[in-house]
Each structure stands twice: as C-alpha cells, then as structure tokens.
Specification:
By secondary structure, this protein is α/β, with parallel strands linked by helices. It has a domain of 69 residues: 2-Layer Sandwich (Nucleotidyltransferase, domain 5). It is built from three helices and seven strands, in the order αββββαβαββ. The protein has a five-stranded mixed sheet, with no helix packed on it. The protein has a two-stranded parallel sheet with strand order 1-7. Strand 3 and strand 4 form a beta hairpin. The longest helix has 23 residues. The chain is elongated and about 95 Å long. It is found in: Cell inner membrane; Cell membrane. This is Biopolymer transport protein ExbD. Its main location: membrane. Keywords: Cell inner membrane, Cell membrane, Membrane, Protein transport, Transmembrane, Transmembrane helix, Transport.
Length: 127
C-alpha cells in the first residue's frame, strides 16, 4: 500500500492578495504624499507674492469648509485663533473660486472683529 503524496502549498491566492494590498498601498500613498487641500484659486492680473516670515494660512475649499494651516476648523474656533494672533502676523487667505462668497465674507468679518488688518488674498496670475 502506498502513502498518498500531499501536494505542496498553493501560494497563488496569497500572491493575489499581496498584489491587491500593494495596489491599495500605492494608491493611498499618492494621496498622503500630496497632503494638501485642493483649492482652485481665482485669477487676477495684479497677483503678487507676499514675502513675510510669520504667516498663517486660511483655506476655504470648494465645499466652503474652512482650514487653518491645513487643519479643518469651525468659524468660532477661527475667531478665537485669529484673536490670539499677533497683529503683525500675515494672514494669507486662499479661497476656492467655487466656494460660497458668504464664507469669504465671514472670514473677512472675523479678521475685522479681531482688528487684524494685515492679510493677503491669494489668486493665480492670469496668463
């Protein structure tokens, strides 16, 4: 009587799973590498680059969500943070052209309430 011979371990399903995991890791890593909030800036013919050492960036995306230095923040929290800023710090506003105009006005209102008049509105230079 002969002993039945066992076949080797079938590794094809393991390779399939590893390839799927590799594809997921590669696709996710491209989003992590960018790490920025996408903001479509409006264009302007008189666009300039502000040259300041201390600056705080406020971004508003196309869905009118507010970000302070790439961290999502509510309007109330923004008001507290702006009030705590030094008056000489430059506030850079990057407002998506598809966002609601009311979000731009509310940020300008927060700056005015805090008495912070040193700010720049970022646009793209027209070609």
């Amino acid at each position: 009587m002969s002993i039945p011979r066992r076949d080797g371990l079938n590794i094809v399903p393991f390779i399939d799973i590893m390839l799927v995991l590799l594809a997921i890791v590669l696709s996710v890593s491209t989003f992590i590498a960018q790490g920025h909030i996408k903001v479509n800036l409006p264009s302007s013919s008189s666009s300039q680059n502000p040259q300041e050492d201390k600056k705080v960036t406020i971004k508003v995306d196309s869905e009118s969500k507010i970000y302070l230095d790439d961290v999502a923040i509510s309007e109330d929290e923004l008001e507290k943070k702006i009030a705590a800023l030094d008056k000489n710090d430059l506030v850079v506003l990057k407002n998506d052209k598809d966002s609601k105009f009311s979000s731009f006005i509310s940020i300008m209102d927060v700056l005015k309430k805090a008495g912070h008049e040193k700010f720049a509105i970022v646009t793209e230079k027209e070609q």
